[in-house]
Specification:
Five copies of one chain form a homopentamer. In chain A, 53% of the residues lie in helices and 14% in strands. Chain A is an alpha+beta fold and 383 residues long. In chain A, helix 8 (219-252) packs antiparallel against helix 9 (259-324) and helix 9 (259-324) runs antiparallel to helix 10. The longest helix of chain A is centred in the C-terminal third of the chain and has 66 residues, at 259-324. Chain A starts with 5 loop residues before the first helix and ends with a helix. Chains in contact: A-B, A-E, B-C, C-D, D-E. Chains A, B, C, D, E: The chain crosses the membrane at residues 307-325, 345-366.
């Protein structure tokens, strides 16, 4: 009867367990290629202070020539849909089988692995999805060597590296004068900074929800709150380990990273901490929103019940009075049998009695403040 | 009156306190055999790079010949239903009485014990139960010696070691070239990886519940949420200490584990951390679901109350009007006594008045939005 | 109007603050004897590998002869109702005044105190109370000397030491071959293991509550949940510090404890950690039960409201119709005044109209599913 | 319209922020005298093993003679209402301006400051207020010198030091044979022990609330729960830092404190930990009470709704039947128009029908158990 | 339909993410000038023990002369609206590009950065907003050099430094005799102390809410609670890292800070801890308020339902009785047909019956206590 909520499922696939995990007992280092993934395209940017080469490469082995030269080589692999090419890529860069597994099987938490002459950084990259206020997330792996940086991403459609490409192309800032460690920093910084616009979207969604939840709480609102809560949990799982990874990058003192770049990494670390601060604040706000929602629903119920009570309490006694004078006691058998029916002013007096009762009841409700704000609260709210 | 909920009870037995604990004051090292447990079957796999022996063994003492040879021996004991055999097993492998107690009495939390020439790993193994989305759990004990690995499991019906057996048989990967420490790692890795499909089942159950809770929350939903919460707690008690155990395995530097295997264990540790990440996320999601459930039930109540209020508020005043003209004031005694009854258009005017009142009330309810979504929300929900 | 809930009060006295605390500013080391406490009985068990003496002692000073002999002496004091005897006991064992205060004033948290030639362990002992699923709790103090163990307990009626006494009497296990440190371990282990049957009782109570809360939640259920929560809090206050105490016992390396016994203590520590695991799981389950209770009560309210709404919504419109035709408009004055009253088929048509309205309403309620499960849910629940 | 709740405000003033804080940017070390504070009275007790001097002092400078003598001098200042005297006190005792500020401006959290020849302890002292089950709280500052202890308290009316004064006067215990460090310990111990009777009061209030919340939850109950929660928060802010302060007193090893006294301080530390245990237990209990309250209110609503539903469901159908036979269809126009009205047994049959309907409905309600416990639950509750 | 809630949005801008964050991939050290910011005004105060210069400076380069002289120079920059001036300021003070970015881009969390000859402190400054009980927040950056302090703030309208300016002008306290480190401390202390009046405002708002929530909970109350919760979250994000920053300032031992000033910083640190204590207490109180609100709303619903139930339960049976005697059974056809109608005392007896029923019902409601406190609770509440 009920269609699957696609967005939920999609998210879980992106960030986690489904499909990518390998069967228990498979050989460690096994590469599993996702059938839906695009075939890898390999882009090379090789630069030093004066020269710059831009090139798309067909075979992974082409890279080898560039790796040991003095210039900085950035090899960017986009798409993971071909097992053979990935294997050869691993050989070209001389990667440990476990690293290659981590890079290809996109289920890893962010982490840092230090293999003497290579530093592997597994990170999460997010790009805001302005259509629904959510985000696209994917794993990015950075391998830092002495003269090269290898980046591997699954989705060729969007990344956060355009700013860095631009700086290299236009020779802006100091990037062209620095080594591969600075490039790795610049890419990592771009990844971290990429979380800010995503969080900004969530900030706006929470702002909108805050009003909706107080003014017009509905089933949909509830769903939205839960949805945000869930997505923030996803983000959190991406950011927290990133912080630890960067921190150990700063402290562990790999020789591949120069002290100058280490200062920049500290700045990068500060940004991650700030991200976490904002994220946790948002999580607390959303948790608070759920409480507010529950209260607002109860409030609404109060308004409904008030209305029911006011209407019932006024008309039920009146109906009773009408019922009394609708009785058929025989007035002719006895002077005590409903003499009011034969009074000259009987009916007007009866109506007057009803009016009196209604007035008294209305007045008592008014004193309790049940009449004033029962209906038009939402409109009064706009301050 | 009410039958016991078997599943709950079963789970608790599996993972914990009941039955297996010994009476206070019994001698430490006492082995208590569960009467329902199957008698132990002992399987031996002895291999090196070239040779491979598969064998079922009848008497524990038969193992002794294989333990000190240069080849790797994997002794797999399935079933715990015979105290005598277990005692002799302990003697054959020269196990400390406390270790034997830990292995047999299946109530231990995962842990690692380092006895100079033996490393004992107590772990929890889970196998997904596709019938109800839950899992079968049992304790597995690994004893790692210089040339052998002893594994003891209670339930012979299912384990996660088929992949490993397969790799040994078909000589896939590097397992045949490595020592007993690599075998122990491979088994431990299979145990850890065995949690992923179980968690995946829970991910699906949570997905299903998310829809159920918003669209059609019922008593059963509540029960399911609580059930998942409870089972995740069980899983958690299995995974968390496993992480600590593997961590201390990596750091404490027993001589039985070579540096190469230590790198693989780090990968295994990463998987455990990832499991915990997912598990904790699920736990938060389920906690959130409970809030959503409560809100959804309140919402439903609001809908019910709205309907009651709309119906009552419209018909109670109308009934009052009808009641008034059902009064029996004597129109002949006075011209003031209900002259309306004798009007030419009396009845049509009265009906018109009722219609007017009903229209005004309906309009005011419509303006408040009480009429639109009161009934068909569940059907509108399918996006 | 309301009688005091005795059980609550009793519990608090047992585990805590009331009565036993001394007035601010009293001299440290002051002994306060609880008037209701029984007078102390002193039991001596003196044993070595070959000999065994069982004896009840009248004067504390009698112990002194046994303390320095080579055999292990276990002096067990039961009851705290005589200040003079306690003072003399302190002198006989040469206890620091602060220790004696700790032992007698039963308000201490579990802890370990290391006085060069004596090791004082303050622990909590619990015994399951099968009448109400709760437990009796009391403080036990162990003083470990080179050749003796002194235990002091308040309540002579029950303790967990029978197993240990049995092992000494029957010379089971290795206890008769070991020193006083092993005896202290055996007693401590019996105390720790004594928590398992208590927790088992709570496991059963929680199982029962789980069904009650979903099938038939009532005021009493609420009270039971709160009661369990409270008692688990009590248990927790007893267990947590016990863990720390045992841990520091293992690590701090007093000379009174031999390395062999230290291994056994590690086992004891593992049991404590396991206890805490189970306890915290139970606490989470009970916290979850409270949420479930709240939801179940809301659900029940929904059922009640549904019934009210169905009944009201069907009969109020019908009563309105009846009311209309109960009006007294004069049909003779005008052909427009209630001509239906004079129709040949007037009454049957009116009844048919009522039937139609009722059918339509019932059908619409049926479509919403309000009729099916409103009443008999509890009976359907038994799976 | 609503008067300020004085108690709340009073509490906040006592324990915290209001009034005492100085303007941002004022000179550090500034003394602000609270106008409502009483003028300081200075009491001196000077004692050694044999002699004892009790004296009220007019000018702070009089103390100086006693400070350097071999006997222990306890200078107790009560009241803070005179800036000049306080300044001179500071000079007499040679206090650092920041210490004097801490002592006078009663807003500090408990802490310990070590100035080579002086040890400053800022503590919170509470005295139970038996009128309302709350407490009076104030700051006490202890300055420990080689031969003297200076204590400063705001409120002369009550403190917890009477026991200590008594022990000095009557030469009870070992206090007269010990130095100033023991005196400081004795005072600190009295302060800590002073929390127990306060917590005991809260234990009783929680006991009372437990019954009230289940048997008769009202608006007032809610207020009381919140009030206790708030006051426990206050207490907590006083106790927690006290623990840290005492701990650092034990560990940091100031030369002013002898090893013997350090053992006593360990006892004092244990008491603080125990206080925190009890306090946190109470906080959990109160948090649980809030949940229970919410559930109990929902339960009560259920009872109310049940009554409404029973009454409505029984009488609305009956009224409908009465309404039908109150219709005025003309029986003379047609034999089908309400022939029942002219039946010989019409009225009795109609009443019998009503009785039948009512009985069926009552029976169905009885089967659901709605009739039994709806009203008299509170009275049944007394077990 | 609904206007944006400005205050929320404003707050978020002030304290966080929006607008100021730079695009992912921009060059580190980029300065982004907020268009709405005011152009910078630069104020110089140069002083030593004897001399004092007050001066407004037009060009940043003018400062340079003062920086290396022996006197202390305080350069206070207010407003950030001119990129060129800020760049030149950075050059004049020889600031690292990353520092300048931190100072100008007002999104940083409080932190401390130690560059050998400069110490950079990023702090949050708040000023109470007495109009709405909230606060103005902005970032303040302090750069401490050997002979100078540079402060940069965005908003020229208000800061907390007037007290410090005053002390310098009037030569109050020891500030004129101390170096630049004391000035930095004094400014930091003023910033920290500036949080107290803000928290005091929140204390008052919480006091007010406590009454509102119990006496008259409405939709607005809910909004206020959420608003306070949100603002306290903001404050928290400002204070917590400030504590860490000051702590590392004390411990890390930069040479720019003398031991004397370090003692003062410890005082400053104590104040921060105290702020956090108060803040966390407030956060707990507000969380408690939300629970109280939910309970109070439920309570109110109970009152409403009670009224409805009382009115309905009394009048529905009465109306039924009236309905019975309004039936038209033909009394002439049979003596059994409603003989009551023809009784002599029929009508009075009927009224008496009604009165009896009403009395019984009222009495039973009164016994349940439903009549007493249903309406006038709010007025009774004023104690």
């Amino acid at each position: 009867m009920v269609k699957k909520n696609r967005k939920f499922t999609k998210l879980m696939k992106k960030s986690g367990v489904k499909e990518h995990f390998h069967q228990p007992g498979t050989i460690p280092g096994t590469i599993i290629v996702d059938e839906n993934s695009k075939p890898p395209s390999i882009f090379l940017i090789d630069y030093n202070q004066t020269d710059l080469i831009h090139k798309q490469i067909s075979y992974p082995e082409e890279c080898i020539n560039y790796l040991d030269t003095n210039s900085v080589s950035w090899v960017d692999v986009q798409g993971l849909g071909n097992q053979d090419i990935l294997q050869r890529l691993g050989q070209s860069f001389d990667l440990h089988p476990l690293i290659l597994e981590d890079i290809v099987n996109m289920v890893e938490r962010p982490k840092i692995e230090d293999y003497e002459d290579q530093l592997v950084i597994i990170a999460h990259m997010v790009v805001p999805n302005n259509n629904n206020g959510s985000f696209y997330g994917e794993q990015v792996s950075l391998v830092l060597g002495k003269y090269y940086v290898l980046t591997v991403q699954e989705e060729p459609e969007h990344d956060c590296f355009d700013g860095v490409r631009n700086r290299i192309d236009k020779s802006k800032g100091i990037i062209r004068c620095q080594g591969s460690d600075y490039l790795a920093y610049a890419l990592l910084d771009a990844i971290i900074d990429g979380f800010f616009p995503v969080l900004e979207l969530y900030g706006e969604r929470i702002d909108d929800l805050e009003e909706e939840v107080i003014i017009n709480p509905s089933q949909k609102t509830l769903q939205k709150i839960y949805q945000i809560r869930r997505e923030l949990l996803q983000l959190r799982r991406g950011i927290w380990p990133q912080r630890d990874a960067i921190n150990s990058l700063i402290r562990d003192g790999s020789e591949l990273i120069s002290p100058d770049v280490r200062i920049y990494l500290r700045d990068c670390y500060d940004h991650t901490v700030q991200l976490i601060d904002i994220l946790e604040t948002y999580r607390e706000l959303v948790a608070g929103l759920m409480d507010v929602y529950l209260s607002a629903v109860s409030n609404k119920m109060n308004e409904i019940m008030k209305l029911l009570t006011v209407v019932s309490s006024i008309f039920i006694p009146l109906t009773f009075i009408a019922g009394v004078y609708g009785m058929n006691f025989n007035t002719e058998k006895s002077p005590h049998n409903m003499p009011e029916l034969n009074w000259y002013w009987g009916y007007p007096l009866c109506l007057a009695l009803m009016l009196l009762v209604a007035t008294i009841l209305l007045y008592s409700f008014w004193r309790r403040g049940w009449l004033s704000n029962s209906a038009n609260l939402p409109r009064e709210f706009h301050r």
